[in-house]
Amino acid sequence: MSGIQRFLSGRQISKIEENSTFNAVGGAISFAGQFKIHTFSAIGPDFFTVRNGQKNIEVLLVAGGGSGAGSHAGGGGAGGVLYASSLSVNGNVGNYSLSVGNGGQSQSSMYQGPAANGQNSTFSGLIAVGGGGGLGTNNNSHTGQPGGSGGGGGPSSGGFPREGGASTQGSTGGIGHGHNGGSGNRFYGAHGSGGGGGAGGPGINSNGTTGVGGAGNAGNGISYFGTHYAGGGGGGGHNGNAHNGHGTGGIGGGGNGGNETIRGTNGTNGLGGGGGGSGHGSGDISSSGGSGVIIVRYTI
């Protein structure tokens, strides 16, 4: 049984003889070698339409990345990634509905609560889960938001750990990809927040050290069709007036974390990257996650 059959929990997708007159439209169409490629990058609902014939196609879904939080904040988790290597489509069905998820959006200035999750991306019943938002320091929650990849935790407070959010779409035989966010920490006033999880690896725990506000590095992105997707956002760092300690965003569109003077940067649209967590002071503004994408590819 193929990977996509396992993912669909028993739903049978029979192999069919491909029709040489296969014709489909939808999205931005391009060609690379033996492949015809349909790229859907506009946020919201759309259709992949088969006008004639039948074929097995590849489908890549990348969900929107989570927002990085403001104020000593954790980075946003990358959007979940879902890859179907052989999905049967045919002209008798015609329209296959899909939707591209937006990234979690930036909150108002001085926002210190949990940041917004990214939106799911879907294709004909397949779902890639939006990335989890990062956690700000002044919040009663002790973990980053769960999502396709988990958001990073804020710095510890009152003796409680600030753990990274859990991935709700862990890697299962190469079908769904996502990792937990990194944990936040504090060491004598040096704050280091966790980086958001990415599709290629987990966020690394952030550890504040004497004189330096440590920050979590995000998980690396994962490559499909020659492009890296779904890097988590870097965590924000804080250490008094020290202008350092911010984490680097993960490969695949993850935004960098901020510090006392700079805010976290947004995740990259079209790659599902998580937003970077902001630091403190003038950087107390949360960042947005990057929007996702859906790519359909097949031989011609």
Task: Describe it.
This protein is mainly β. It has one domain (24-300). 2% of the residues lie in helices and 26% in strands. The chain has one helix spanning 3-7; strands at residues 23-25, 28-32, 35-40, 44-52, 54-62, 81-90, 95-100, 121-123, 126-128, 176-177, 185-187, 190-192, 222-224, 227-229, 237-238, 293-299. The strands form 4 sheets. It has a 6-stranded antiparallel sheet with strand order 2-3-16-5-6-10, with no helix packed on it. The chain has a 5-stranded antiparallel sheet with strand order 1-4-7-8-9, with no helix packed on it. Strand 2 and strand 3 form a beta hairpin. The protein is elongated. Mean pLDDT is 80; it is low at 1-19.
Short description:
This protein has one helix at residues 3-7; strands spanning 23-25, 28-32, 35-40, 44-52, 54-62, 81-90, 95-100, 121-123, 126-128, 176-177, 185-187, 190-192, 222-224, 227-229, 237-238, 293-299.
